[in-house]
Amino acid sequence: MIYIHIFIMAGVTYLVRMLPMVIFKKKIESNFIKSFLYYVPYAVLGSMTFPAIFTSTSSLYSAIAGTIVAIVLAFREKSLLTVALSSCLVVYIAEWILRLTNLL
Amino acid sequence: MDTAKLSNSFLSGIKDGIPIGLGYLSVSFTFGIMAVNSGLPVWIAVLISMTNLTSAGQFAGIGLIKASAPYIEMALAQLVINLRYSLMSLSLTQKTDKSFNTLHRLILSFGITDEVFAVASGKAHEIGTKYMYGLVTIPYLGWAAGTLMGAVAGSILPDSVSSAMNIAIYGMFLAIIIPPAKKVRPVLWVIILSVAISFLLHYTPYLNKLSEGFIIIICALVASGFGALVYPVEEVAK
Q1: Which residue in chain B is spatially nearest to A81 when comparing CA positions?
Q2: N or C: which end of chain A has fewer CB within 10 A?
Q3: Tell me, what's the pLDDT at B235?
């Protein structure tokens, strides 16, 4: 049931934001939990990105081109918007070339 | 008007929220396209954005909805993917001024995203509720509007364009994780470990039967646990 899925998504997402803000008024003591939470976003985003990024477009080759551009621009600390749109543009151009050469 | 008051006004929050909102337009546009491509109606895509306000969680969520995943898996996946917000909320409680009573906390905590947190915690002064309401307004509207446009355009756009736009969210993720990984070596190791486990779970026979949600959970628990054990935060956050 789709509404239950959405309710669970929204509910859990709200609770993880709301509970700490409402309950905690002082600093976390456990260094392990502090450290764990510090690393969570990186681990989550890393595993969400790979290998999914390689199958996100119509062709592995265009995906690799987009990935390389995204990594290079991110390494140069370009904004989220610049990195995201540049990789889209590169994928678009790569697939246009692939189509011209009948590889797609 | 002194600077402390200025930084606590609704308008100054709105102003700081505009670049975030613009950035959200393109990402939520992609979300709208992907949601419709995976078979969801336009208004469901918008409903998800207006009730969740989170990129990674929503993208994982539509995958789980599409797969008719068990509710417990949806809950666990959202919990792990969005656990970082707990840390941000917690951190912001150290930054808020006396105007943050329980009611304001109940409402404003909904608007905490990676970027909102980044801007709010970067402020030199304590944060007031007026500023915070201003800060979350434009990102929230941008997130909803982008989703609507993407969901509507998704069925009109040629395949070549929507294929190219599917990579946007991953480009954004890379833009979030690579700069810190460059500066903080343990962050790089945690990412490499997480990505390695992700590849392993996706391509090893039998293990690749695990669902997307659980793969993310396992990667996050193992890699973050490794990071916390081997590189505790005090040695990292200098």
Answers
A1: B23
A2: N
A3: 57
